[in-house]
Each structure stands twice: as C-alpha cells, then as structure tokens.
What we know:
A hairpin with a 3-residue loop joins strand 2 (45-49) and strand 3 (53-58). The protein has a domain at 32-173. Mean pLDDT is 76; it is low at 10-14, 179-198, 237-243 and 245-253. With 253 residues, it is an alpha+beta fold. It contains three helices and ten strands; from the N terminus they run H-E-E-E-E-E-H-E-E-E-E-E-H. The strands form two sheets. A seven-stranded mixed beta sheet has the order 1-2-3-4-5-10-6, with no helix packed on it. One 2-acetamido-2-deoxy-beta-D-glucopyranose binds next to loops.
Amino acid sequence: xxxxxxxxxxxxxxxxxxxxxxxxxxxxxxxxxxxxxxxxxxxxxxxxxxxxxxxxxxxxxxxxxxxxxxxxxxxxxxxxxxxxxxxxxxxxxxxxxxxxxxxxxxxxxxxxxxxxxxxxxxxxxxxxxxxxxxxxxxxxxxxxxxxxxxxxxxxxxxxxxxxxxxxxxxxxxxxxxxxxxxxxxxxxxxxxxxxxxxxxxxxxxxxxxxxxxxxxxxxxxxxxxxxxxxxxxxxxxxxxxxxxxxxxxxxxx
Length: 253
Ligand SMILES: *[C@@H]1O[C@H](CO)[C@@H](O)[C@H](O)[C@H]1NC(C)=O
Ligand SMILES: *[C@@H]1O[C@H](CO)[C@@H](O)[C@H](O)[C@H]1NC(C)=O
Ligand SMILES: *[C@@H]1O[C@H](CO)[C@@H](O)[C@H](O)[C@H]1NC(C)=O
C-alpha cells in the first residue's frame, strides 16, 4: 500500500548513498564527484575500484588511489598503487588539472646513470645496470649519466622519506567566477557549489518525501470523511426509521 512512499525513499537513499565507494569508502563531497568508471575529465571526478577503493584518474598519467580528502585544508592525499612516489613525481604533469602539490615545490633533475654516483639511487626506478637519482638542477651531469627531466616536485629522493604516500598530497583551486573580487567571492561560490551539488538533491528528496506524506495523509482524511458521511447517513436513516416507528404508534393513538 505504501509503494509510492517506498519508491521515493529508495530514490532519496540512492541520492545520499551515491557519494562514497562501497560502505567503507571516503565521503565524496563538492567539488568532487563520483562516477562509476574513470573518464578523461581532468577535473574533480573520482571513481571506485573493487567497490571500496576511491580512485582518481589523471589524463596522460594514469590512476592513483585516494587515501583521504580534507575539505577544510583542501588537501587530497594520494597513494601510488605501484608504490613508487618518484615515478609519480617524474611523470605526473599537473599543469592541465585544477591540482598542484600541497607542499612547496622545488626543481629537481632526474638522472639515469649507468654506474652508481654519490648519493642514494631511487630503488623503484633503478634496476640492473641503471641507477636513477634526483639532483639539484645546478649539479653538473656526470659522463655516466643522462638527465631524464627537470621537474618541480615537493621532495628529492631520500631514503628517510621512502614512505609510499609521503609527498603525494595535492591541493586544488576552486573554479573562479568572472566578477570575483576577493575572498568573499570564493566563499560565496564554494557555498553555492556545495549547495547545488549536495544540498539540492537532498532538499528535493525531502520535499518529495513531504509531498508523498501529505498526499497520503489527505487520502486517509478523505477516506475517513467518506466513512464519516456514511455513518452520518446511516445514523440519519436509523433516526428516521425510529421516528417513523414512533410516529406510527403515535398516529394510532
Ligand atoms: C569492502 O569493505 C568491506 C568491509 O570492510 C569488506 O568486507 C569487503 O571485502 C571489501 N571489498 C573489497 C572488494 O575490498
Ligand atoms: C634508465 O636507463 C635504462 C637503460 O637505458 C632504461 O632501461 C630505463 O628505463 C631508464 N629509466 C628511466 C626512469 O628513464
Ligand atoms: C606539463 O605539460 C605542459 C602542457 O602540456 C607543458 O608545457 C610542460 O612542459 C609539462 N611539464 C613537464 C615538466 O613536462
């Protein structure tokens, strides 16, 4: 009997449930969106892998695991599934995305050397007969080495900072409005974006629930009214009958 109610309730739930991967996933809020599969949208699109894992796809690079999102600090903590942060630093180009490294960046040159040089080579990028290092760009490239690339990254390689997630913190810029002229605009826009992407479906769901509730209440009242009027008619009928029965003897007297 409550079919419309159940239908809208499920609809409402699906609005609120669609914002995380599985039951244990991260809460996805504005400016991020969640879609079933990765697409080449370089913006704030996240997707799920193996139900629970929140992922981000960078065009021209690939996929990274989202470990946590701090909306207040505007910080996205990522993990490289291949456990090689310096491979990410070397290849991930953030210039066409809304992201940049959370930490202050400095220029480093990646060297690929055929024999070991001074310093620690990066284990996950080195192999038999080649040793990869990060050096300051001012360092003269030794004869046994080839400079791969100079990139702006938060950290050079250090065996002390070899934690897989260390350094893979990104921050993001909010899309700017044309007439924006200060922090107020940013705040206003953030609230507005938040409102449109998160609150509106929720409010719509609540309004629908309220409407369904109201319709059902009206239906019940209406049914009651019919019942009441039926009762009235019956009462009227019995009264008339009684009156007639009384009248008849009265008339006979
Ligand atoms: C997702 O998380 C739940 C609860 O921790 C776990 O039981 C389930 O195996 C996980 N699924 C995958 C695919 O990792
Ligand atoms: C370093 O050089 C070796 C041998 O030329 C090559 O196989 C390897 O892919 C290079 N590594 C990088 C990160 O460029
Ligand atoms: C990153 O991409 C931009 C635009 O495609 C390019 O201009 C820039 O040189 C790239 N940066 C690196 C370090 O490769």
